[in-house]
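Assemble and predict.
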Amino acid sequence: MECKNLEGVARSIRTSVIKGIHAAGSGHPGGALSAADIVAALYFGEMNIDPENPEMEGRDKFVLSKGHAGPVQYAALAERGFFPKEDILGLRKIGNKLQGHPDLRKVPGVEMSTGSLGQGFGAAVGMAMANKLDGNPGRVYVMLGDGELQEGIVWEAAMSAAHYKLDNLVAIVDWNGLQIDGPNDQVMAVRPVDRKFKAFGWNAIVIAGHNFEQIEAAFAAARNCTGKPTAIVAKTCKGKGVSFMENNAAWHGKAPNDGEARQALLELGGEW
Amino acid sequence: MEKMATRQAYGKTLVELGAKYSNLVVMDADLSKSTMTAEFGKAYPERFFNMGIAEQNMYAAAAGLAISGKTVCASTFAMFATGRAFEIIRNSIGYTKANVKICATHAGITVGEDGASHQTFEDIALMRTIPGMTVINPGDGISAKLLLEGAIELDGPVYMRLGRAAVPVFYEESAKLEIGKGSCVRDGKDMTIVATGIMVSKALEAAGILAEKGIDTRVIDMHTIKPLDEEIIVKAAQETRGIVTAEEHSVIGGLGSAVAEVVVLNCPVKMAFVGQKDIFGESGKPDELLAKYGMEVVDIIRAAEGLL
């Protein structure tokens, strides 16, 4: 699908993220907003998917291993037509399909249930292995948080993806530098991220994660890389697009109140 | 009596099933010669994945393969499968209802010489708390084969507990077993022993000795601990004077607890629990350990007599 207005799409996704988390009264806006541009580029450009046929044979898959950013995936799926946009207002509410963390059995277009960090990455490795086994052309994209890199399973998965030469797998690290308790560098340093992946046998690319040209170029480079998986280390800004949330760890897991949501939507150009 | 380890039957049956099911994938975590999955690897190298000593990632990747349409058997020792990878099994396999068969070997005290670090008594308890998880513990080589075939046919997560040591084969080749249905391997009207895994053959031996003492003892092979065959338990509670459970597992949370949960709700009768007490094991020969830790024929007999 060709779509050149990725900025507009990303703004609309961010608007839905704020509306959903505000309506829920809880959630994780910071890491959803930092991932929004990359997720927009995946769902509105890079990935071969069909909202009319979410189970389409040979489709590309996206796994949100940092499952707490679920609203950004829900917003993108809704924007792309997998379900009505107003459904986001049911986020985290009892009986609703949009769980606090994504559930593949409840939401069309969600490929893996995530939330417990690191596991989505391992599952994405399994999906890429299955596609190789079947000669399935579908590619697998998995997004991790930077704090998530502290989980041991991440490096088990990284080792196995390189060992099995999964060049149909792309891991994107949403490197916004902040986790719940503060900056990664203070909590548990994860640097140097790209060199770690390289040492594990991956192709690693560092980009500015809010620059669409760089995002698209990285996806293209990943497609052209054979024999090994690609890690795209995307430098991002936590809370991107909402001035008072930007670069503030306090907005990792807190919902905006009425006034804050109104202000956020005003800045994003969305309607209250 | 012929002897065979349930893991041996597992390895052999996997090769047969590989021919029948082209979507069957087998994974291991560097223990393929011990779990016997290496035989499948030799027969179907393209469908066998050694994931290295990384059990957490193995079960997460197994989920990804299963969600992509594969039937996956992923093996390692029971300690590392259900202990180390518990939360991955719970969230990525249980919660997603992924079609993964967790076929874990070297369960219980009959691991023997490797000692307490490798002797798991908690696995059945852990696995049966996961919603939708089928929990199977075959007692001999033939039932291991039959129940593995059943597990592969079933769409959803299964935990299958397998052993290291060679144990007596008590089923005939022609036996019919159904997952979720206990198998009455000896009838009796005075007392019932509900046993699972390697304790079934010991229960049969105990029943023989009890019969000589005039105690007519029924033996049920509860090869499926979840879903549990409540009907066969309630019937035993109604028709006999007490129930002894026997398992090579902690008396906390395993077969004994599961049977007691059914008994107290439906037809309270006296019960006794043979199994590993709330204590770690140690190194030794399997038979020495079973005797020292109270999981021998004599322990079952004593428990049964204590109920009369």
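Chain B touches chain A at residues 25, 46-47, 49, 51-52, 54, 56-57, 59-70, 87-88, 91-92, 95-97 (CB under 8 Å).
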